[in-house]
Amino acid sequence: xxxxxxxxxxxxxxxxxxxxxxxxxxxxxxxxxxxxxxxxxxxxxxxxxxxxxxxxxxxxxxxxxxxxxxxxxxxxxxxxxxxxxxxxxxxxxxxxxxxxxxxxxxxxxxxxxxxxxxxxxxxxxxxxxxxxxxxxxxxxxxxxxxxxxxxxxxxxxxxxxxxxxxxxxxxxxxxxxxxxxxxxxxxxxxxxxxxxxxxxxxxxxxxxxxxxxxxxxxxxxxxxxxxxxxxxxxxxxxxxxxxxxxxxxxxxxxxxxxxxxxxxxxxxxxxxxxxxxxxxxxxxxxxxxxxxxxxxxxxxxxxxxxxxxxxxxxxxxxxxxxxxxxxxxxxxxxxxxxxxxxxxxxxxxxxxxxxxxxxxxxxxxxxxxxxxxxxxxxxxxxxxxxxxxxxxxxxxxxxxxx
Amino acid sequence: xxxxxxxxxxxxxxxxxxxxxxxxxxxxxxxxxxxxxxxxxxxxxxxxxxxxxxxxxxxxxxxxxxxxxxxxxxxxxxxxxxxxxxxxxxxxxxxxxxxxxxxxxxxxxxxxxxxxxxxxxxxxxxxxxxxxxxxxxxxxxxxxxxxxxxxxxxxxxxxxxxxxxxxxxxxxxxxxxxxxxxxxxxxxxxxxxxxxxxxxxxxxxxxxxxxxxxxxxxxxxxxxxxxxxxxxxxxxxxxxxxxxxxxxxxxxxxxxxxxxxxxxxxxxxxxxxxxxxxxxxxxxxxxxxxxxxxxxxxxxxxxxxxxxxxxxxxxxxxxxxxxxxxxxxxxxxxxxxxxxxxxxxxxxxxxxxxxxxxxxxxxxxxxxxxxxxxxxxxxxxxxxxxxxxxxxxxxxxxxxxx
DNA sequence: CCCACATTCTTAAGCTACTGAACGAAGTCC
DNA sequence: GGACTTCGTTCAGTAGCTTAAGAATGTGGG
Lengths: 402, 402
Known about the structure:
By secondary structure, the first copy, chain A, is of the alpha/beta class.
């Protein structure tokens, strides 16, 4: 009889992601690869690689780029043409809208930042996308579409409390459809945390074998989770509510209606509120409790700057918040057997020097003692643009696999 | 230009699960279906359905079973032959080993329970599997293999603290390989919580559109999570450590090395310990603090029985535990946008009358107020065998799709 | 009874994406 | 210049589907 004890067996020629996608992904991850290497990595036959690569060369997605000597015939190396296909990523933040033009390799070709629009959202976005494309001087025919990142869910309305005024009332799907009509491009909408995770996955060359979570701090806290190379969007596309993981059973009430949510205890708004309530901390951070409040993200960044500069009260506030975040991060890591935690978004970009070590300390103990694994905690290298890049990556991905 | 705003578009003829699997799944879910209906449900062509069904009929997996009149030619209905292919599910519990023989439809054909073996684990298992098959009088050629459920991870060793003595030191993969050799069947190893989730998914006809979590209480607490019809096993197959979700940042130290873990605060062992520390509760449940301890699951069941019979101290203990479990459940639901929570395993089977309502209460508030979703909490109808059935289902699944 | 008509299922030809195996190409080493 | 090595391509299948046409099997009307 058989003696299989694990996964798939001989007939493992199971339906994978398709040759095109596998090959593009492998080259993107490795930078440059020969056809034989591709065959080895993807598990495809050399014949299949050869045929698929020829088509990719014809389409201009891939170019040959030198050769490496071997014992016999040298290998011809292949790389992606970064500008063969492009996509625009738009990141709708509270007070800034960031536009990014990205190519196949994930690099930012061109960037544009504007204050958040006050009037008609759609026409502003459409106009700015045009400006970005015109200013970068690329062939518009190569642009495949627009990825739109916002703090709300992929489809459905953003929660009122946490949403910048100019985005209130919008539904993700609706926004996508309307912008597609207004701008004349295919539009894909994504949540900011998920987009950030996709961006890291795409740009930072995280392999599909690593299960990872991108923790995102903007004016709230979210998590984008990628396992087996697939973004987890949950039942109705509303996954990633990291801010509403409970870290204190009977903690203070959260605006969501529950108790002890991470966001209520340790989110940027909670940190800012604590700083405003503490005159010493407010002074350190240069916050004026009387003044009209800017976004939580802005005030939070001020506190982080002060803490980094050595302000003790601000540092204490962040350390306190980090304790909670670390506990919630540990929950996620344990629940999903996560390998890699990436801190991203403006909040963590400003304060990772506190949150990173806190998470590592918390996860490290049980990690070594019990789970025999080793979780890596890193800080995104492109926290400011990761989301926008991720959204653009989703657009590219969806078109390139075909 | 295009106006795509969501998922895949025209070329949605994307590589799905394969006709065979789709068709079998559709019939299993619906009970009886005609070919046209199958085409509509699976999205395949009628031609493809026809061909695939013919092969399934030849293999005996599917049988025709009557017809329904229409305006024209009546439909021939198809159903699965429950006994066409079989698999054995083995559930290694602390003091009992349960064997289940399951067919294509998930029904239990035959069952066997034995005290946990004390001597050589493998030979006991192999012998009992033989007994089960012999006793049920089925054709051994129809049996595809054995699914083995244990409290440890799919591959890797079970954590010492939580493992019944006869399983200590085993590694999941090793156990599978060795049992395959000893019993002469292909063996697949799975964690009990994940297996329970698969069992629910398979038996209780949960559709792949629902993201669901099976919370499992045995001598510890775990969660099996299924999203998009796929079990989440995480980076190294160690996902589902629901018991080590943190519900109290600075809670008591857990044996895992961290603090405030659900299991340390509210797991069955914690509940039993609390009952032993409280003479009134111990008396209600008939626990003798001086006696040698049986498994936590057994003592916990005694407490649950007492509570159900009206014992106030025991009820209070469970209510207290349920508060924590509910908070952790809410975390999972929020993090992964879970639709459906199923309570299963001996612990929840005994005490669901407390835990079910507690989870519903906790999740319900924010659900209605903020998330505009509606999470269902149910109790498994076959909590005792769900795990074993699930493991058998995995074996069947892996063979049937080919 | 026989003939539209509706509907279900089957058959045949073709397409896509891959595999296997043989072969051509382009180097190195002696 | 020939043997050898390694890389890449070509060609003929094959699996699994699709599209398009047609066969089977019922209904209701004259």
